[in-house]
Amino acid sequence: MYVAVKGGERAIENAHAWLAEERRGDTDIAELSVAQIREQLSLAVNRVMAEGSLYDPDLAALAIKQARGDLIEAIFLIRAYRTTLPRFGASEPVDTGKMTCDRRISATFKDLPGGQVLGPTFDYTHRLLDFKLAADGEVPQAPTRSGITAEDVPHVSEFLNREGLIEGAPHDDTPPPDLTREPLEMPADRALRLQALTRADEGFTLGLAYSTQRGYARNHAFVGELRIGAVPVEMEIPELGFAIEVGEVTVTECETVNQFKGSKTEPPQFTRGYGLVFGQTERKAISMALVDRALRWEELGEDFVGAPAQDAEFVLYHADNIQATGFLEHIKLPHYVDFQSELELVRKLRREAETGHVQEAAE
Fold first, then answer.
1. Per the record's keyword annotation, is Transferase included, yes or no (predicted)?
2. Does residue 114 share a domain with residue 77?
3. C-alpha torsion angle, residues 159, 160, 166, 167 (rounded to 10)
4. What is the mean pLDDT of residues 199-212?
5. Is the pLDDT of residue 6 over 60?
6. Which pLDDT band holds residue 1 (cuts at 50, 70, 90)?
7. pLDDT per residue as tens digits for the range 272-321
8. What pLDDT, on the 0 to 100 scale, is given for residue 220?
């Protein structure tokens, strides 16, 4: 047994060395720096921060480099590192009404105070390969940008709220459970569901959101507003007795406006779906808002039609890519004893079956 362990240890060390060599690649080509990844692969960095539940672009870029570009592995690294960090306190809820917007669009209202701000987006590109990038060509200089201040960009839902045409935003000061410290338990209220969705796998969330659009949840949504920008983070200092700004984070916020015919207790009105994610991650934020709305069927008095996106237990227990990866990939680890027992069982069943056939033939 000791020899087997030592042999396995040497093999693992060699595998690690080989991995490091593969990670580095051709040494004749300059090595990628963490700063280059942070600045030029920013959308990948944003996803790692969002699903890793840690806002730190440098650490996310380092994780991407270490993981050879495998974003789920990078998310795993960030979550593992996060568990080692001390917690000094909790910040105040961020006020997205104070966002300095780099991008802000609405699919429901054309003319908005402050205007629609297209911002940096792939939406209007032709999706043609740009071979200038392969030739290390310089890109055109973007116009000087200035963030749109919050005074210019009220939330679109406020326009509908003035006429009572959309459900009121909930007000609950109860601190939600911390999903990074406590295991997910069902039933989960909306605060906990949103917490799980914001760090859920983007592809899984996107697939569920797409299913709602195709009719699996009766969920017809409009993007009331999508905004991306920096919001201040404030923290109350006990010695001072008031909150002070300790920094800022870039987030993507999406609020959908959904049809609702009313119920026994609620009049016909529009309802809301909500998504808020670290960084510029608008595909994820929109998907999150669609799934959030689908999961609200019970509290709104709607019928459960059996759609996957309506099933909170199915959604929340399968959305976390780190849990899914761990359970999926563990089957490639040694299962020699388990397999040998099943192998013997199959052999025994085959012998019994063959014996039975012989007896039948003799009769």
1. yes
2. no
3. 30
4. 93
5. no
6. very low
7. 899 999 999 999 999 999 999 999 888 888 888 889 999 999 999 999 98
8. 80
Closest residue by Cα to residue 286 from 254, 309, 319, 257 = 254
The CA-CA-CA angle for residues 99, 101, 107, to 5°, reads: 110
Site of tokens 């959308």: 43
Domain range spanning residue 355?
338-362
How many structural domains compose the chain? 3
C-alpha to C-alpha distance for 191 and 61, rounded to whole angstroms: 29
Same domain, 78 and 175: no
- Helix, strand counts (H, E) of the chain: 13, 4
Which tokens in the block code for residue 135? Answer: 């030739």
Nearest to 193 by CA among 300, 83, 73, 313: 313
Is the bond preceding residue 238 a cis peptide, omega within 30 degrees?
no
| Cα distance between residue 116 and residue 124, in whole Å | 14
Check whether residue 249 and residue 109 sit in a common domain: yes
**58 and 167: one domain?**
no
**Hey, is 184 helix, strand or coil?**
coil
Tokens for 212, please give them.
């709602």
pLDDT digits (tens, 9 = 90+) for 170-184: 777 777 888 888 888
d(CA 205, CA 197): 8
Q: What number of residues does the chain have? A: 363
Closest to 198 (Cα-Cα) out of 235, 155, 156, 253? 253
Q: Which two tokens stand for residue 41?
A: 């692969």
The whole-angstrom separation of Cα 278 and Cα 44 is 12
